[in-house]
């Protein structure tokens, strides 16, 4: 009998190819029947009624413990994949980003709420890459130091406001978030927490969170619901969505129109928006509809994202310091050893404040600002761990679950990052994965550091008192929705000494007018 070696080489290769193709076909065919495990779906509607209306990330984590870190749900006829581990998220969204970078079709946001041009909601393709390129030109890691003078200036304004009206500390955080991003994107100066643009962003963010109801979510999986008349009793979700659309449209449109008016009158300074308008305006003064929509969309997305997530992180910092006063005392001792009591911290001090770095990591882990991130959409069939994931599947990363995978996850323990170097760094998790990672992450992270460092140096934070002088311990409660905030609580914030205001005023006197350092191509000048 002839052996394989007796077969001519060309024929031998053909045989091997046929065998390999046969095995691959059988493997793929059998894998198609092995969808990832998950809870049993109900007829027609699938698992949609089994998802928690509040804090769904906690329910997804329970399913992860039961079925594994890759969980499949069915929403009507569509597949949703929940990733409950960092390994799965990186394997799929990072390593296979070429097919996992699309977005699902957001019926509610795109059609009812008017977010058609928001970068976060764009389908993967030419326009998304264009938007991302524009944003990365300004917010890449090498450009971020150029924003530090602006962040420091606005931090000093925040400190002054907190000394004068400490009970409004959340409003001061909102003013800071709006002031920094509005200066960069539109060259607008924000002096007051009652500024028109701050109020517009706050209203849009609040209504967007409130619109994330189960009925609203159903629209994305059953699009015909968008045609329901608003006068029907059960169409409250649509009435709320249309109200939200008006607010979101104002957030995108009003500051953009202000820049255009300033440019016509010759009063516009350099900004992200003005530079892009100049770049894409034709010699005869025309700006295409697509370019105008894209510029407005990227700027509005930066505005919206920075406002809500920055406030969430700062609000969480204050709550943690109220509930864990021993951590705050340790932070103040570390700060005093570096800066003393006669000056404010600056970014050059950061390497000398390692405990603060651990605290900020714990802030990000303890209350993930966006617990489920933004959903991705698989663009073609895929096989992962012998499981078949069909094209068109929505993919959610349970960031909350990933960062809760540690000892005593509900407790605030910054030392865990000193004691266990194997813990994932939350900075590399909370901002998303792959080609959809948040482009403003470096800017947001430095804002958190600047404000927390300055508060530690200048402010005492403690629990509020009741009428008998006893401490009031706020409950550990967070809102549910796209962005997680601590629920409102009272606390005491006051200057550490009588010298604090003088030190702040001296620092403000040495701070000049910030000029956005951008070149004609829309890049930050190095």
From TrEMBL:
Cited Pfam families: p450
Keyword match Cytoplasm: no
Superkingdom of the organism of origin: Eukaryota
Cofactor entry: heme
InterPro entries registered for this protein in UniProt: Cyt_P450 (IPR001128), Cyt_P450_CS (IPR017972), Cyt_P450_E_grp-I (IPR002401), Cyt_P450_sf (IPR036396), Cytochrome_P450_fung (IPR050364)
Keyword hit for Transmembrane: no
Signal peptide: none
Residues reported to bind heme: 438
Pathway stated in the Swiss-Prot or TrEMBL entry: Secondary metabolite biosynthesis
Gene Ontology MF terms in the entry: heme binding; iron ion binding; monooxygenase activity; oxidoreductase activity, acting on paired donors, with incorporation or reduction of molecular oxygen
Family in the record: Belongs to the cytochrome P450 family.
Protein name from the UniProt record: Cytochrome P450
Species whose genome carries this gene: Macrolepiota fuliginosa MF-IS2
